[in-house]
Every structure is written in structure tokens, then in C-alpha cells.
Design brief:
alpha+beta, D-Maltodextrin-Binding Protein, domain 2, binds 2,5-anhydro-1,6-di-O-phosphono-D-glucitol, binds manganese (II) ion, carbohydrate metabolism
Length: 334
């Protein structure tokens, strides 16, 4: 019996699940895995090399770009360019779509939306950060891919995943047949299957929100937080508050232990802070594939019809029973 299954072996063994792909999606996932290893190498020695701190630039989000934001963005785009399976990239770090123009990619079928480095504010203080990716098939059949190939509803994704650069580095992804987690074994430089068929617990006792924004939260969210904090031993309340500030890290913890992650509209972000195309859609699909729920407060995140590349949405995702309890509070205030 083989002692471990690498990401590459797993992808090949499950290739039959991709009805229309003849290996291209497999190769695309492999390319992402390679870039993740390169980013992991820099994250792991950050502090020893000149990869911390500001890149002295501001991205389209109006955020100060960190050197690792730029490095990660470059690594993923380079891996996608050389892999030849991707025709267009939408990255948090680029205002417009990045066309992967090369003779081999002109026939490429896939579109990748990516948050190259999630949790940038945590890089310089050695707290877990991540990468989030979302893959679609292009809609146009030939010629140059366009923004219309990118702005697809979340339920049209063909693959979605995240990498967490934490106490260990993991790659977690779905292609619509459940969620599987792979842990990087540095001794062989391979992601190995460590968390097959991940399921988020039906309920949990962790709520994750930046309570610094409490004053501006919608009333339903305030009511839900009060519910989380009430004494009720029958339902294991008060719950525990845990907030890391890297979406990937907060989501990954909740995937394993159960919990709910909330990023509502705030005074700074009237539509919520998190971006639909490369944070909320991929994470929402993973959560749903693991048996959880992912809503915007007005419906399912995966049903949102995208209008712009960097549009934001409120996001409430995690254990099904916890999200449904929040929905009760939302319904009661509508
Ligand atoms: P990014 O670093 O890719 O810009 O994303 C940061 C996001 C997300 O990772 C996290 O959940 C959220 O910002 C934290 O926001 P606050 O600091 O406002 O709580
Ligand atoms: Mn950012
Ligand atoms: Mn992010
Ligand atoms: Mn980012």
C-alpha cells in the first residue's frame, strides 16, 4: 500500500472527473502547485531575505503593496504563463486582466482569478498567510480572451482552492467532487494527500469577525454576535471569538473545527471588504463542497452575477447550522 499520494498522482487518478479536459486542467493545477512551493520557500525564509516590508507601491485596492504580494503575484503569473493552459489572469494585484499572450496559450482554455498573497497585513509579523485561486473555462471559443471570460458567476468555477502558509503549508482544493487537502512535505518537495474528503462540521462554537468594526455592523450581525456571546450551555454558548486577519487562515481553522466567518459591510467598506472573484467565490465553493454554507446576506455568494473585476461583497461562510442561525437574524431584521 503506497504510504502517500502526491498532488500530481491524485490529480491524474481523478482526471476522469473532468469530462471535457484532456489533461489541461490537471496541468494547470500542477502549475499552481509549483508556484505555491516557490512562494512557500520565500514565506519560510522571510526575515532572512529582503522579502518583508513594503514594496513602496499601492495596488488598485488602495492598499500598500508588500514585497511578498508582488513576489507571489509574479510567481503565479509566471507559472501560469509557462504552463500554457491559462489564457487570462485576474489578480488582486493588477487593475486590469492580464492576458497570457504566448503562442502556446492562444488555445488555452482556462481563466484564473487569484489572490496571490492573502493576509498581507500579517506577513511582517510572522502570522499565517495564504493564496486563493479560482478557475473557469473561457466562454469565448477563439481569439483573445476578454473580461467577459473572467466575469463569470461563482457556480461556473471548474476548480477552486487555497494555499495556507502556516505551521505547515497546505493546498486545499475542489473540482466539484468534494474537497481534498494536501500537506507539503519539504523533504521531498511534494504536496501529499493528508486531508481526504474534507467536511466542515455541521455546527461549531467559533465565530470569526473583526469586532473593531462593530459600531457600523448591520443590526442583524450585531444581534447574531450578541447571540454568540449569551450564556446557554445547551448550545455551548458563549462561543469563542477567533480572528486571525488572514481569510485563508480563519477559513481553514473553521473548515477543521467548525465555525462561522463574517465580513459584513462596514464604515470603510459599504459592500464588505472581501473581493468576489478571487476571495469569496473560491472560498464559498470550497465551503459548500465541504457541506457548509456561504452567503452574502442577500443570497448565495455563488449566485452573484459579477459586474466588475475587483467588486466586493459581504461574506458570511462556514458551518451550515451557524450560517442558518445568522440567516434567521437577517430575516428578522428585513
Ligand atoms: P489581502 O491581504 O489579500 O488584501 O486580504 C486581506 C483580507 C482577508 O485576508 C482578511 O480576512 C481581511 O482582509 C482582514 O480585514 P481586516 O483587517 O479589515 O479585518
Ligand atoms: Mn491586499
Ligand atoms: Mn485576500
Ligand atoms: Mn492579497
Amino acid at each position: 500500500m503506497r504510504s502517500f499520494l502526491t498532488l500530481g498522482q491524485f490529480i491524474i487518478e481523478n482526471q476522469k472527473d473532468f469530462p471535457y479536459a484532456k489533461g489541461e486542467l490537471s496541468r494547470l493545477l500542477r502549475d499552481i502547485g509549483i508556484a505555491a512551493k516557490l512562494v512557500n520557500r520565500e514565506v519560510n525564509k522571510a526575515g532572512l531575505v529582503d522579502i518583508l516590508g513594503s514594496a513602496d507601491a499601492t495596488n488598485v485596492q488602495g492598499e500598500e503593496q508588500k514585497k511578498l504580494d508582488v513576489y507571489a503575484d509574479e510567481q503565479f503569473i509566471q507559472a501560469l504563463r509557462s504552463g500554457g493552459e491559462c489564457c487570462i489572469v485576474a489578480s488582486e494585484e493588477h487593475e486590469d486582466i492580464v492576458c497570457i499572450d504566448s503562442h502556446i496559450s492562444s488555445t488555452a482554455k482556462y481563466v484564473v482569478c487569484i489572490d496571490p498573497l492573502d493576509g498581507s497585513s500579517n506577513i511582517d509579523v510572522n502570522v499565517s498567510v495564504g493564496t486563493i485561486f479560482s478557475i473557469y473555462r473561457r466562454i469565448s471559443v477563439d481569439g483573445k480572451a476578454t473580461l467577459d471570460d473572467v466575469l463569470q458567476q461563482g457556480d461556473r468555477q471548474v476548480a477552486a482552492g487555497y494555499v495556507i502558509y502556516g505551521s505547515s503549508t497546505m493546498l486545499v482544493y475542489t473540482t466539484g467532487k468534494g474537497v481534498n487537502g494536501f500537506t507539503l512535505d519539504p523533504s521531498i518537495g511534494e504536496f501529499c494527500l493528508s486531508h481526504p474528503n474534507m467536511k466542515i462540521p455541521e455546527s461549531g462554537q467559533i465565530y470569526s469577525i473583526n469586532e473593531g468594526n462593530y459600531i457600523k455592523f448591520p443590526q442583524a450581525v450585531k444581534n447574531y454576535i450578541k447571540y454568540c456571546q449569551e450564556e446557554d450551555s445547551a448550545s455551548n454558548r458563549p462561543y469563542t471569538s477567533r480572528y486571525i486577519g488572514s481569510m485563508v487562515a480563519d477559513i481553514h481553522r473553521n473548515m477543521l473545527l467548525g465555525g462561522i466567518f463574517l465580513y459584513p459591510s462596514t464604515s470603510s467598506y459599504s459592500k464588505g471588504k472581501l473581493r468576489l472573484m478571487y476571495e469569496c467565490n473560491p472560498i464559498a465553493w470550497i465551503i459548500e463542497q465541504a457541506g457548509g454554507k456561504a452567503i452574502s446576506g442577500e443570497g448565495r455568494i455563488l449566485d452573484i452575477k459579477p459586474e466588475t473585476l475587483h467588486q466586493r461583497t459581504p461574506a458570511f461562510l462556514g458551518s451550515k447550522a451557524m450560517v442558518e442561525k445568522l440567516e434567521e437574524f437577517i430575516a428578522a431584521t428585513n
